[in-house]
Design brief:
Bound molecules: ligand LHQ
Order of helices and strands: EEHEEHEEHEEHHEHEHHHH
Helix content: 40-55%
CATH superfamily of the largest domain: 2-enoyl-CoA Hydratase, Chain A, domain 1
Structural class: alpha/beta
CATH architecture of the largest domain: Alpha-Beta Complex
Oligomer: single chain
Number of strands: 10
Distance between the termini: 34 Å
Radius of gyration: 19 Å
CATH topology of the largest domain: 2-enoyl-CoA Hydratase, Chain A, domain 1
Low-confidence stretches: none
Shape: globular
Number of domains: 2
CATH class of the largest domain: Alpha Beta
Strand content: 15-25%
Number of helices: 10
Length: 259
């Protein structure tokens, strides 16, 4: 099984599982990961996802043995990239928060899949490598879009061109990720965070994700209108009513995450 799924109360842990290849992605893993995300989305009890890797690495990107340049001519990278693009769009568009626990090296597409998640934690021994330039490619999986937005133009360029490993602690200092955590504490921290998110106002969080992504291309004017409209929608949600009631009654809210 190239992807493992564990069900927890309110959320699912999805683990990339080709540890002897540092969880490099092949066609089978793509299919399994898409299926796991699809199943999580249709499970009404699932309100958050925790993505991580089995073994010592998070994900070494594309399995390069799968896209070798052989006697039959150049491989069809367009077709391969279509699969990645679908994966990134799906991850980004999930109507629930996605926590990524980067347990070891995250290289190439593996790094950018992690960065496409909503909240990224990394073990202090982990590192992020925009490995693409080492093999004559550009950062894909949204890397050229995400990197400058997360760390600014100067750092994005150097990361993309130099392909040097960026240690987790520096990644956190630079704002590439949310937090670097002691190795031994990574999974416990990630589980606690995901379990907490699974009890929150899921539709509100999903809408926040949508609004933040839309802001990347909107003017302030357009964004103000969008915020007004989305807030209006949320104003009719059971979780908003419960949140306000709980505040006024000085108790913890009991969100359902449902429309
Ligand atoms: C691997 C891989 C790997 C196969 C480690 N493939 N076996 C999209 C579309 C189309 C085309 C191409 O690309 C893309 C997007 C991309 O992701 S491009 C970037 C692809 N990834 C890379 O270039 C990273 C390649 N890996 C590495 O540079 C190193 O493995 C890193 C720096 C990640 C880790 O280094 P080490 O900790 O020293 O581990 P290692 O290199 O010894 O790897 C362990 C094993 O895993 C090893 O196999 P072996 O049989 O010798 O034990 C590697 O060959 C294998 N492996 N990455 N991407």
């Amino acid at each position: 099984m190239t992807v493992l799924v564990e069900k927890h109360a309110g959320y699912r842990q999805i683990s990339l599982n080709r540890p002897d290849r540092l969880n490099a992605l092949n066609a089978d893993m793509h299919g399994a990961l898409m299926a796991a995300l699809g199943e999580a989305e249709t499970d009404r009890e699932c309100r958050a996802i925790l993505l991580t890797g089995a073994g010592r690495g998070f994900c070494a990107g594309q399995d390069l043995a799968d896209v070798q340049v052989g006697d039959t001519g150049a491989p069809d990278l367009k077709a391969v990239l279509e699969r990645y693009n679908t994966l990134v769009r799906t991850l980004r568009g999930l109507a629930m928060p996605v926590v990524c626990a980067v347990n070891g090296v995250a290289a190439g597409a593996g790094a950018n899949l992690a960065l496409a998640c909503d909240i990224v934690l990394a073990a202090k021994s982990a590192s992020f490598i925009q490995a693409f330039s080492r093999i004559g490619l550009i950062p894909d999986c949204g890397g050229t879009w995400l990197l400058p937005r997360l760390v600014g133009a100067a750092r994005a360029r150097a990361l993309a061109i130099l392909a040097e490993p960026l240690p987790a602690e520096r990644a956190a200092e630079w704002g590439l990720i949310w937090q670097a955590v002691e190795d031994a504490a990574l999974m416990e921290t990630a589980h606690k965070l995901t379990a907490r998110l699974a009890t929150q106002a899921t539709i509100g969080i999903a809408t926040t994700k949508r609004a933040l992504d839309a802001a990347e291309t909107n003017t302030l004017d357009a964004q103000l209108d969008l915020e007004r409209d989305l807030q209006h929608e949320l104003g009719g949600s059971p979780d908003y009513a419960e949140g306000v009631r709980a505040f006024l009654e000085k108790r913890a809210p009991n969100f359902t995450g449902r429309r």
